[in-house]
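Action item from last week, closing it out:
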Amino acid sequence: MELATVLDRLAVDALVTEYARAVAGGDPEVCRPLCVPGAVLDDPVLDARKGAEGQAVPRQRGSDKGPRPYQHLIVNRKVTFERREGEVGDLAVVDADFVTPMRSNGPGRIADTVRGGRYRIRGVRTAEGWRLSEVVAEEVWQGGAPPAGGN
């Protein structure tokens, strides 16, 4: 493996880690600097879905207006590079799993939930470095404990 490929893998891995940290904040706009213009974010954990022009559109959260205490872990990452214009490494594809433990605090109740699924993340090399061009998440499972003191 060439040094340039190793450096690209490290850069793409860092980009995915920054995305995971942004998702944990729960605001699609925080992800903008990580993306190329027109990037598609389709991520139920982020509460974003594809808009008409591929823009992230926040989902309606109902009465849940407070902070959402959780972590978002993107694990088991497999990074591959695709050819573009005869060059290797201009496009990156990351297949990964995610696990998101969450705590919902409501009046007089605490509930724990864990969600898991898979990502297909595409990145592109730009003059500013690697950026996300598409993030598609599929939630595969969800489980949790009932609210403390709940019914």
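Closing note: The mean pLDDT is 80.
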